[in-house]
Structure formats: C-alpha cells, structure tokens
Design brief:
22% of the residues lie in helices and 29% in strands. It is α/β, with parallel strands linked by helices.
C-alpha cells in the first residue's frame, strides 16, 4: 500500500498478564498456537503494507527471535528502547526518520482482532485526517472513553465528554491508530511520553482527529482471564463465523507456513490422538506439529472449550474443560482445575467473564 508503514508496539512489560509473561513478552504469547506478534505482522501484510517496524524493551531478545522465526518478519525494522522504555508516545521518536513522510499505522502488540486496516486507512485519507483512532462500538470499562461526534470526529479521550459540541458517543479505543507524520510534532522529541497528550494538543489546535468504528472480532489480551475468554469466544462463534475469523486473523496462514496443524473441533464432536491417549470434545481446538501427543504417557480427556498444544506432559490421567494448555506445560494430575491456563511451570486460574 503506497505511502503507508506499519508499527507494532511491543515494548511493554505485560504486568497484568503475569506469570505468563515471566519468560515471554506479551506479543510472543500464543493465540491458538500463533504468537500475537506474527498475527499483527499478518494484518499489515494482508493490507498491503510492507514497510513495518516493531519496538521492544522488555525481553527484547525474544521479540528479535520472534521476528526471525516469523513468516512475515523479513526486513522488519526493530527499534530497541534502552536503557528505559519510552512509553506509548516516546516510542515513535527514535523511528521518526524511518517513518519519513509515510502515514503511520500503529497496532498494539497485545490485542487480537480482524480490523480491516485497508478500510480504516481509506477512511483516514478520505477525511484528510491528521490522526484516526480505530474504536469499538462501546467504551471499555477500565480506560478513558473516546468521545465521537456523529461524523466520527473525536472531541476528547477522557472519562467525561466535552462540555461543548456533540452529541457525543462514548467508544472504546481498539488499539490501532493512523497518524500523519506531522502528528509527531505534538510529542516531546526525546524521553518517555504519553500519546494521549499529543491527541489533546491536536484536537485543541483544530486538526482533524477522527474515528473508524470496528465491530468485528476484537480482544485485549492484557490479563489471563481476557486471554482465555478470547479463545472461548472464538470457539463458541459457530463453524461458519469461526472459519472466517480463523482465516482473517492469519491463523491458517501461520500454521501453513510452520507445517503445523490447527484442528477446530465442532460442538459434540470428539477428536482422539493417534495413540488414543488424548480425547478432546468440541467446541475445542488442538494444535499439533510433528509430535501428535506421542510423548503423553497418561490418558487425558479434555473439553469442551479447550485449546491444547501438543508437547505437554502430565503426571497421571485427568479431565479438564475451559482451559488453555500450552505445549510446554507439565501438569500435576492431582491438582487440575477448569477455567485455567497451563504453561511451562504455572497453573493460572482465571475468573469467568
């Protein structure tokens, strides 16, 4: 896509997602077997954006390794923030020369979505906007709301609507924004900063700051509960919608490139491993590579609402539902719980949404 570049924000500490992020940064956490970073890169590539940058700070070497392993990581610019993290505004400044005169499409590395980037960019340009926020139909409880007029113009990003103008509709920020190069003039040119301050300046200065509403699949994966719920929502979406979303997110493309298999098991159907040591009842998903649970010594029954990767081990037979089991998990069969996530050394119990 001419004169546009992509930027994946991937430097954060992932504090709310701990302990999953004790060894991996948030963008390397897997969703149906695929790292979030890969799926963000796929969104750009599928929109025709080939110039892409990624920033990193926390566990930056893992981000670097992830780019090298990604089918869409070739020629991606890596901006490592040292010695301090630069925040959601300061992250842009080291890349300012690299951005040049191109429109910047910035995507948070801790979300999963099927946002139509090409449509959002077309809207941004049709509005001749300095900045565009992709927004959700409803506000998010823990964040400031994005207050939008009927024509999409943004009046403020705050807890309360502007005192004048409107009427205003409160919406949630979908963690994708489109910025013209001149927008970066509203940011401090060094050190840590918050991009919301730049938005406030641009709006006060009369610049066109607009919104684009996304009503499709979207999840913030900031906490274990949110991560599990995102998996559950896709599993419960129904075969037709599920197939469409799996393709749109890039999951099919990722597993095809890595010669792995993503099996989506329909409700009431049961999948059994070739060694008959694992059965999984749908709606669930099984992610397999060359090793299709051949090393699993115990008999395990999973589902419904389970996403399981091959490679995990268990001390004995068990049953579980509504959970994520990563391939690195080592599970104590005497202490298994539903509504949980299992990784290399943790059982993380999640709240039900």
């Amino acid at each position: 896509m001419n004169n546009a570049c992509g930027f994946v924000l991937a430097a954060g500490f992932g504090t709310r997602l701990r302990p999953l992020t004790s060894r991996l940064p948030k963008p390397m956490i897997r969703f149906f077997g695929a790292p979030l970073l890969d799926l963000a890169l796929f969104r750009f590539r599928s929109a025709g954006i080939s110039d892409i940058a990624v920033n990193a700070h926390y566990l930056a070497k893992e981000i670097e390794s992830g780019l090298k392993a990604s089918p869409w990581g070739e020629d991606v610019k890596l901006s490592i923030e040292n010695p301090v993290i630069l925040g959601r505004g300061g992250a842009y400044i080291p890349l300012r020369n690299w951005f040049g005169k191109k429109t910047i499409v910035a995507y948070n590395g801790d979300i999963i979505s099927d946002i139509d980037i090409a449509a959002a960019l077309a809207h941004h340009r049709a509005m001749r906007a300095t900045a565009t926020m992709v927004v959700l139909p409803k506000p998010l409880g823990r964040d400031n709301a994005v207050y939008c007029a009927d024509d999409g113009r943004i009046g403020t990003i705050a807890k309360t609507p502007p005192a004048r103008g409107g009427p205003w509709t409160a919406r949630g920020f979908a963690c994708l924004q489109i910025l013209e190069p001149e927008f970066l003039n509203f940011l401090p040119q060094e050190g840590e900063s918050d991009i919301l301050d730049a938005y406030a300046q641009a709006i006060a200065g009369g610049h066109t700051v607009t919104s684009f509403v996304h009503s499709g699949f979207w999840h913030d994966l900031g906490s274990p509960t949110q991560l599990l719920q995102a998996h559950v929502d896709l599993l419960e979406s129904g075969d037709v919608a599920q197939k469409k979303t799996v393709s749109a997110l890039g999951l099919d493309a990722f597993h095809g490139a890595h010669h792995s298999n993503l099996l989506m098991i329909s409700p009431e159907k049961v999948w059994k491993s070739p060694a008959n040591n694992l059965s999984v009842r749908g709606p669930s998903s099984v992610v397999t590579g060359k090793d299709i649970f051949t090393a699993l010594q115990a008999k395990v029954e999973l589902g419904p609402l389970v996403v399981v990767e091959s490679g995990f081990s268990a001390s004995g037979p068990f049953k579980a539902s509504r959970c994520i089991i990563y391939g690195s998990a080592v599970i104590d069969h005497k202490a298994v719980h539903d509504n949980a996530i299992y990784d290399h050394s943790h059982e993380i119990r999640c709240e039900r949404a």
